């Protein structure tokens, strides 16, 4: 039973427990009798072996099981009674020993959510930008799509930048190639190589000497190479005609296609506005609330960010200040949003989690089972998904309670 709580810091508590000897012994006897019903002891029918034999053979197992259960149940009850908000599992500083016929004493250190004084999150000012889509933006998208969906077609005109060419070449260092496809102006050869081909016509044979730099990714790095080149074919990008592009996307007429593009652009702009509003709200919350951050949670977040940097091949020793600052900001934001969500009664139902899994599966064209497997393999649970839904619902409330200042989108 909880005997007392010691404040180590604003975010760390020491819970002191004492469980009477008779309670401990009663639980051990219950565990032994449970084992007795299932144990198979030579010379005895199942469930009929004397308790003294069961205790001699399985006494340690029963005691260990009781210890684990009593510690777990006592901790859960204490957290509820003291209205603490644990952030991480509890830690026992010393080994917990259980002795027959004696009270069980133990202490647990638990990191808890700090109390936030004067929590204020209403009427935060955010800009209400009008997500208007101009006709010129739609035209730009269509023109880009005409180019992207275009194809390379043979041409008899002289080669020019960005053409695809097919060449044969021989070099004075023994390397050669046939039907080598190369885009003029692209790597890995130096710009001089492309310039030597520009202006040439299909069927021409010519010679050029190229100095390859030491840092070139081509096979000729650091060498001066003489090329004998035959230009066999030239292909030039031909854009899809403006008046035909809508058919590429399955639309019956240009107007339907333009309306589709307008809707997508509007949705993208609305999403950008929403993300900026969320950022502004969170920044305001972070700037106007100060409280002690839980050390363990910050350390855990720093470890996660460090692993992220290492996966990108970055030298973490040069980024420790950034990692520490980012970890503290993330932890502070997490605590603020959790406190606001609790105050507003935000919960996440099983149905909401299932719907989120379906939404993700549709967005990324994978099965719901694949979504679950991803989160389970990465985190071991769906807690990250649940937290994402919780955070979104909290931000919905913050946006509803914000003070929106209208501002027309700049041209």
Automatic annotation (TrEMBL):
UniProt cross-references to PANTHER family, sorted A to Z: TRIGGER FACTOR CHAPERONE AND PEPTIDYL-PROLYL CIS/TRANS ISOMERASE, TRIGGER FACTOR-LIKE PROTEIN TIG, CHLOROPLASTIC
Trigger factor ribosome-binding bacterial domain: residues covered: 5-145
Phylogenetic lineage: Bacteria, Pseudomonadati, Nitrospirota, Thermodesulfovibrionia, Thermodesulfovibrionales
Protein name: Trigger factor
Keyword Cell cycle: yes
Record function comment: Involved in protein export. Acts as a chaperone by maintaining the newly synthesized protein in an open conformation. Functions as a peptidyl-prolyl cis-trans isomerase.
UniProt gene name: tig
Annotated GO biological process: 'de novo' cotranslational protein folding; cell division; protein transport; protein unfolding
GO cellular component: cytoplasm
Class of enzymatic activity (EC top level): isomerase
Similarity comment text for this entry: Belongs to the FKBP-type PPIase family. Tig subfamily.
Enzyme Commission code: 5.2.1.8
GO molecular function terms listed in the Swiss-Prot or TrEMBL record: peptidyl-prolyl cis-trans isomerase activity; protein folding chaperone; ribosome binding
Compartments where located: Cytoplasm
UniProt catalytic activity: [protein]-peptidylproline (omega=180) = [protein]-peptidylproline (omega=0)
InterPro entries xref list: PPIase_dom_sf (IPR046357), PPIase_FKBP_dom (IPR001179), Trig_fac (IPR005215), Trigger_fac_C (IPR008880), Trigger_fac_C_sf (IPR037041), Trigger_fac_ribosome-bd_bac (IPR008881), Trigger_fac_ribosome-bd_sf (IPR036611), Trigger_fact/SurA_dom_sf (IPR027304)
Domain writeup: Consists of 3 domains; the N-terminus binds the ribosome, the middle domain has PPIase activity, while the C-terminus has intrinsic chaperone activity on its own.
Pfam name, any one: FKBP_C
Predominant subcellular localization, coarse grouping: cytoplasm
PPIase FKBP-type domain mapped to chain residues: 158-219
Organism: Thermodesulfovibrio autotrophicus
Protein keywords: Cell cycle, Cell division, Chaperone, Cytoplasm, Isomerase, Rotamase
């Amino acid at each position: 039973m909880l005997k007392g709580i010691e404040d180590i810091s604003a975010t760390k508590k020491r819970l002191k427990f004492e469980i009477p000897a008779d309670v401990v012994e009663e639980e051990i006897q219950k565990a032994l009798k449970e084992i007795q019903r299932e144990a198979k002891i030579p010379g005895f029918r199942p469930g009929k072996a004397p308790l003294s034999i069961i205790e001699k053979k399985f006494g340690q197992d029963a005691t260990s099981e009781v210890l684990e259960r009593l510690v777990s149940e006592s901790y859960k009850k204490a957290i509820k009674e003291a209205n603490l908000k644990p952030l991480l599992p509890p830690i026992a500083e010393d080994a917990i020993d259980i002795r027959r016929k004696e009270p069980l004493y133990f202490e647990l250190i638990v990191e808890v959510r700090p109390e936030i004084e004067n929590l204020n999150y209403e009427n935060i000012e955010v800009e209400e930008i009008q997500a208007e889509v101009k006709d010129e933006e739609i035209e730009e998208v269509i023109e880009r799509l005409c180019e992207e969906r275009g194809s390379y077609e043979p041409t008899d005109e002289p080669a020019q930048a960005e053409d695809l060419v097919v060449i044969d070449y021989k070099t004075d260092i023994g390397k050669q190639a046939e039907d080598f496809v190369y885009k003029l102006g692209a790597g890995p050869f130096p710009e001089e190589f492309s310039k030597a081909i520009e202006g040439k016509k299909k069927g021409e044979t010519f010679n050029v000497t190229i100095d390859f730099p030491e840092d070139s990714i081509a096979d000729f790095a650091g060498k001066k190479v003489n090329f004998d080149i035959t230009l066999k074919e030239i292909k030039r990008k031909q854009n899809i005609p403006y008046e035909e592009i809508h058919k590429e996307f399955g639309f019956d007429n240009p107007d339907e296609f333009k309306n589709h593009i307008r809707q997508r652009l509007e949705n993208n702009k609305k999403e950008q506005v929403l993300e900026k509003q969320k950022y502004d709200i969170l920044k305001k919350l972070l700037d106007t609330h100060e409280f002690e951050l839980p050390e363990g949670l910050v350390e855990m977040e720093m470890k996660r960010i460090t692993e992220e940097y290492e996966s990108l091949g970055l030298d973490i020793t040069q980024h420790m200040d950034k990692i520490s600052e980012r970890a503290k900001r993330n932890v502070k934001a997490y605590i603020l949003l959790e406190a606001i969500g609790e105050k507003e009664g935000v919960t996440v139902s099983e149905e909401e989690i299932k719907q989120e899994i379906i939404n993700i599966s549709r967005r990324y064209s994978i099965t719901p089972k694949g979504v679950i497997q991803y989160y389970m393999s990465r985190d071991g649970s769906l807690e990250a998904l649940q937290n994402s839904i919780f955070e979104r619902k909290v931000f919905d409330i913050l946006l509803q309670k914000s003070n929106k200042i209208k501002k027309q989108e700049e041209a």
